[in-house]
């Protein structure tokens, strides 16, 4: 009897359409959401068919925590945000992903949640590329 082939990781279409990859930092693909209202990153563990943190192996849960902390700290350093919001909801996109969002007093919908508020405002190519370069540099330190 042959071993079943390992299933490959595939990024959810909605995550792919709403974000752009910044870096792969081990377990996770770190992606920038295409909404300039908030510096907003999403960490997506590159494991197939995972919807919940507890679906990960114990080692992957540790890696996810470490990488979430690293990304949150880098985003805080880079932006000087008032608060970093971290959350894993998955009510619409079931694929496991963790949001890391820089919030500022007076930003769009402060102090309320970012989800479902208004319409996404796209970055200019120049602004997006500049932010991605700064994020890559900060994450590499």
From TrEMBL:
Keywords for this protein: Hydrolase
Pfam families (UniProt xref): HIT
Bilayer-spanning residue ranges: none
Any one GO molecular function term: hydrolase activity
Domain HIT residues, every copy: 41-110
Gene3D superfamilies xref list: HIT-like
Protein name listed in UniProt: Diadenosine tetraphosphate (Ap4A) HIT family hydrolase
Source species: Rhizobium lusitanum
